[in-house]
Design brief:
- By secondary structure, the protein is an alpha/beta fold.
- It folds into three domains: 344 residues, Thiamin diphosphate (ThDP)-binding fold, Pyr/PP domains (Rossmann fold, 3-Layer(aba) Sandwich), CATH 3.40.50; 188 residues, 3-Layer(aba) Sandwich (Rossmann fold), CATH 3.40.50; 130 residues, Rossmann fold.
- Helix content is 37%, strand content 15%.
- The strands form four sheets. It has an eight-stranded mixed beta sheet, sandwiched between helices.
- Helix 15 runs parallel beside helix 16.
- The chain is elongated, with a radius of gyration of 29 Å.
- The structure holds thiamine diphosphate and magnesium ion.
- Magnesium ion binds next to strand 7.
Length: 727
């Protein structure tokens, strides 16, 4: 037993991972650190041991085949070789039960094979054939297989750790007893996502096994420059009481299997988090394009060559008389035949059909029988805030798989009190009664106060989607979406084409300008996201649309960014332009996503807008109609993506004049996209150039005079409309 922290560091810094973890593994737990012996073959059936050998052999042979096919120009892109990692990928994945989830790191080819994905599908992926898991949409090992519960790697390192936490959360929510294992590279442990995911898992008692594949290098950076602890397993100590760690030899398949099995059982039994660092060596370049011998010391490679995971295990099986050399040779020959026929199958598989590629980007969504696009003429009116609340409550009541996560939304009802009373209503939470008693069970199930970790909790939501749940994520302000940017644009938006959909998640963004909110609480986030195929963006400004579109968003099978104009949450509907003061049905209805609304009809000019800017657009229309005696049509887009080009076209072709206005800064704004669409589809019908009134190209300022100069005010819209009408 090691006692002080100085002792711990001194002892562990002496460890040579290529030599000293052969016979013992380090166990790190809140009650202390100890060395434990590595498992022997005793107690394992021959069948089990041969299975471990078979999958390692199959992994290597498949990897080598992809390299060969790359050299022949049949496999495309830059393959990331897996040599050296076979024992970790295979041993760890074998320790899972069939319905557990696994999220992958870069070199986990073996994990696919263990989960039942055939070599031809792995090779097919590298060759961009239909046989590949993503049917030609991505290469290398950037793929997943939902039916096998393998969450596909995307390039952005670290992203999948919160997603893995989400898979485990989803299983916990549904009481299945299934858990998740997440692989991660040593280099990747430096990303914020890894920390966010682990902290959330520990704080929310979500079971997870993290296997750090420490192969001594992160591309061209050695361990020594990546972090300052002798072993990453020590990080377990920082995450809490129910977290343990192991430092093991990642080239010994049985050690990996045995340790991960223990961790998986702990996860299942106590919801514990375990951080296992498995030491091995990347025996090849980072990718096939990497001249690694120019920077990896020959001596280091030599040392690890003696620890080849397959040769070591083979020798051990023979020495302990589990199998003869001939038996293992026969198994290798069988593997070679399997891989050869997989390669042939791949070469015979067609490439994808490039026709209508845009149709692939979204997962089809249900057609609603209760959809109403036009509001009723009479009925009660409610605030925009109430519209959103009602929409949420009705969806929560309709579907027990809907949950919401975000900062401060439970105990304190949310920054804007949208979820007031939800914790009590859906989770029976009485904070005042339970806050003093640390041992009282404090369960937040459907309304979850998340740590300040946007990438972490969006990732969790995206993992939960895979298990069949419907997450709603509340961002405190839309501005903080930048914290979760990669989760949204690189992960969520791409999952449908990767055959990992549907991704039915709603992200609610309190957005737009409000008095004195300045640069960091005022963003119109569509500008950041609208160029990413695979996302839907809705931007309602009436209570009718907010409620109906929110309900449609929750029922949609794609990631929907739901923009809420916080400045108008509480405004009395009668204080809005009359065209926005709309009755809101009490019975169940949805507003279909992708349908604009002609808020006001007219004949001389079309003003196109969305969100809060629709208010200024309508006010401006009223001013010029009254003062100039003209007739103005105003379109409220309501949905930005997919854009309702038909409604735009019909109006602009009728009036011959178009003014687009949006609240975000001009350059790169969604307004410019609308202008382009009008020019693209209506040019011959125009009597004047299309005008755009947007905010100035500056951050949103604080002082009132600067705010006025920045914003596309009603006066600026009026002036531009008059100019256009005079043209
Ligand atoms: C966020 C991010 N930054 C940079 C990269 C480029 N990149 C790809 S792999 C890699 C090294 C990863 O090292 P490690 O996590 O140790 O995994 P290994 O390649 O060693 O298996 C880098 C820097 C990336 N994919 N994602
Ligand atoms: Mg590495």
């Amino acid at each position: 037993m090691i006692s002080t922290l100085t002792d711990i560091y001194s002892e562990l810094e002496q460890i040579d991972v290529a030599r000293d973890l052969d016979q013992k593994s380090l166990h790190v737990s809140p009650s202390g650190l100890s060395w434990v012996p590595v498992p022997t073959l005793d107690g394992y059936s021959k069948e089990h041991l041969l299975q471990l050998y078979y999958f390692m052999s199959l992994t290597r042979a498949t990897d080598i085949e992809i390299v060969k096919m790359s050299r022949k120009g049949i496999a495309l892109g830059k393959h990331l070789p897996c040599a050296g990692n076979e024992a970790t990928a295979v041993g760890a994945t074998m320790a899972l039960a069939k319905d557990d989830w696994v999220t992958l790191a870069i070199r986990d080819l073996g994990a696919f094979l263990v989960r039942g994905v055939s070599p031809s599908r792995v090779i097919g992926q590298a060759c961009a054939r239909m046989e590949g898991l993503s049917g030609g949409w991505d290469g290398s090992l950037h793929m997943g297989h939902k039916a096998s519960r393998v969450v596909g790697l995307i390039s952005h390192l670290g992203t999948l750790i919160p997603v893995g936490v989400g898979c485990s959360f989803g299983e916990m929510y549904q009481n299945t007893g299934n858990v998740a294992l997440a692989f991660v590279g040593d280099g990747t442990t430096s990303t914020g996502d890894v920390h966010e995911g682990l902290n959330i898992a520990a704080a929310m008692d979500i079971p997870l096994v993290l296997v750090i594949e420490n192969n001594q290098w992160a591309f061209g950076t050695p361990n020594r420059l990546e972090y300052a602890t002798p072993t990453l397993s020590l990080r377990a100590l920082g995450y809490g009481r129910n977290v343990e760690g192991y430092w093991i030899d990642g080239t010994n398949v049985l050690t990996v299997y045995d340790t991960v099995k223990t961790a998986v059982e702990r996860a299942r039994g106590t919801n514990g988090l375990t951080i296992i660092e498995a030491a091995s060596m990347r025996m090849d370049g980072h990718s096939l394009a990497d001249p690694f011998t120019s920077y990896v010391p020959a001596e280091q490679l030599e040392k690890w060559k003696a620890k080849d995971p397959i040769s070591i295990f083979r020798a051990r099986l023979i020495k302990q008389r589990i199998a003869s050399g001939t038996e293992l040779d026969e198994m290798d020959a069988r593997v070679a035949r399997e891989v050869l026929s997989a390669a042939i199958k791949t070469e015979q598989s067609p490439g994808p059909d490039p026709v209508d590629i845009e149709a692939k980007v979204f997962t089809p969504s249900p057609v609603h029988t209760n959809a109403i696009s036009t509001p009723p003429k009479t009925g009660r009116t409610i605030t925009y805030h109430q519209g959103i609340r009602e929409g949420l409550m009705e969806e929560f009541d309709r579907d027990p798989n809907v949950f919401m996560i975000g900062e401060d939304i439970g105990v304190s009802n949310g920054a804007f009190k949208i979820s007031e009373g939800f914790s009590k209503r859906y989770d029976g939470l009485d904070w005042n009664a339970s806050w003093k008693n640390k041992d009282a069970p404090f369960k937040q199930r459907r309304i979850i106060d998340a740590p300040i970790a946007e990438a972490g909790f969006v990732g969790l939501a995206l993992g939960a989607v895979l298990t069949g749940l419907t997450p709603i994520v509340e961002f405190q302000y839309a501005d903080f979406a930048s914290e979760a940017f990669k989760m949204i644009v690189n992960y969520a938006a791409t999952q449908t084409v990767r055959e990992m959909g549907p991704v039915g998640i709603v992200m609610r963004f309190p957005a737009g300008w409000a008095t004195s909110t300045s640069a960091y609480h005022s963003v119109n986030p569509e500008t950041w996201f609208a160029s990413t195929p695979g996302l839907k963006i809705v931007a309602p400004i009436t209570a009718f649309d907010a409620k109906g579109l929110l309900k449609a968003a929750v029922r949609d099978n794609n990631p929907v960014l739901f923009l809420e104009y916080k400045n108008y949450y509480r405004i009395k509907p009668e204080h809005l332009p009359q065209e926005l003061n709309l009755p809101v049905p009490e019975e169940d209805y949805v507003v279909p996503i992708g349908k604009a609304r002609v808020a006001k009809t007219g004949t001389d000019l079309t003003i196109i807008s969305f969100g809060s800017q629709t208010i200024r657009a309508l006010e401006a229309a009223h001013v010029i109609e009254k003062e100039d005696g003209v007739s103005v049509e105003v379109i409220d887009l309501r949905t930005l993506l997919p854009l309702d080009v038909d409604t735009l076209q019909a109006s602009v072709r009728k009036t011959g004049r178009a003014l687009v206005t949006c609240e975000s800064p001009r350059t790169g704004s969604f307004g410019t996209t609308i202008v382009t669409e009008i020019v693209r589809t209506c040019f011959e019908y125009l009597d004047a150039p299309v005008r755009l009134v947007a905010a100035a190209d500056t951050p949103v300022p604080f002082a009132p005079a600067l705010e006025e100069a920045h914003l596309p005010t009603r006066g600026k819209v009026v002036a531009a409309a008059r100019d256009l009408l005079k043209y």
